[in-house]
């Protein structure tokens, strides 16, 4: 019974969020069980282009370090904000969401070559948080019960938290930069005088991922509670 309940809840998670978070958890589990090592996963342009170890272009986005506070913190934010994007502004547009993943991942990979980062998963999470926060500017956030602010400040609060923990903020800045580029090209530039839509989802992705019918069992997370945990709860203004 418990297994069936878990399976039902798991299958209710939208496709992209389910696939990405599952891949991250399985990758970490494989490292913890010593089936693979981080040295087989990290981003290394020389090994990718000279030794043709192309899997590193993907695996460096899947490993968030050993199981611990940092891993759980990243997994919670990844799951929540990825799911809310997919169930919110990308609902019924799975192909567009996949294209955002591909575009942002490619841009992050290019930038990553110049900042000597070996794992880009945390930066990718910050990118998702940034895009969600810009598309939900009226949501009030509460961080650890200490800070109250509007959603667009969330990526910067996370960067400050990272700084307090003694971590490099290059990761956060990379995620914010890539998130801003995507948000500007997708949401801002098309409405500017002389602007246009530069980001167009390829037809092959639409054919693969977009379906015309709604799932009657679809149960989206409520966006008016974007955090769901003490470090990210919020409510819409005027709500």
Characterization of this structure:
The protein has 239 residues and is mostly helical. Helix content is 55%, strand content 5%. The chain has ten helices and three strands; from the N terminus they run H-H-H-H-H-H-H-E-E-H-H-H-E. The protein has a three-stranded antiparallel beta sheet with strand order 2-1-3, with no helix packed on it. The chain is globular, with a radius of gyration of 18 Å. The C terminus is likely disordered.
Please give a handful of descriptors for the protein shown.
single chain; 239 residues; mainly alpha; three-stranded antiparallel beta sheet; 55% helix; 5% strand; globular; disordered C terminus
Number of strands: 3
Give the overall form: globular
Mean pLDDT: 86
Main structural class: mainly alpha
Q: Helical element count? A: 10
Residue runs with pLDDT of under 50 for 5 or more positions: 224-233, 235-239
Radius of gyration: 18 Å
Report how far the terminal alpha carbons are from each other.
Answer: 37 Å
Sheet of most strands: 3 strands, antiparallel
| SSE topology string | HHHHHHHEEHHHE
Q: Give the percentage of residues in beta strands.
A: 5-15%
Secondary structure: helix percent: 40-55%
- Strand ordering within the main sheet: 2-1-3
């Amino acid at each position: 019974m418990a297994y069936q309940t878990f399976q039902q809840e798991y299958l209710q998670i939208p496709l992209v969020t389910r696939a990405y978070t599952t891949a991250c958890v399985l990758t970490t589990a494989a490292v913890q069980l010593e089936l693979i090592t981080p040295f087989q996963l990290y981003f290394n342009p020389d090994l990718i282009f000279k030794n043709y170890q192309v899997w590193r272009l993907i695996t460096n986005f899947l490993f968030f370090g050993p199981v611990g506070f940092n891993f759980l913190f990243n997994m919670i934010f990844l799951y929540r904000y990825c799911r809310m994007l997919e169930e919110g502004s990308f609902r019924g547009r799975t192909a567009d969401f996949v294209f955002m993943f591909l575009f942002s991942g490619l841009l992050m990979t290019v930038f990553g070559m110049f900042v000597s980062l070996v794992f880009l998963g945390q930066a990718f999470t910050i990118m998702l948080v940034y895009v969600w926060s810009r598309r939900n500017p009226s949501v009030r956030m509460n961080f650890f019960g200490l800070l109250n602010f509007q959603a667009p400040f969330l990526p910067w609060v996370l960067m400050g938290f990272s700084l307090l923990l003694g971590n490099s903020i290059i990761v956060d800045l990379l995620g914010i930069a890539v998130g801003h580029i995507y948000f500007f090209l997708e949401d801002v530039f098309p409405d500017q005088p002389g602007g246009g839509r530069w980001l167009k989802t390829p037809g092959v992705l639409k054919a693969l991922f977009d379906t015309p019918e709604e799932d009657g069992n679809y149960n989206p997370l409520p966006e008016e509670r974007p955090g769901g945990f003490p470090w990210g709860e919020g409510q819409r203004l005027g709500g």
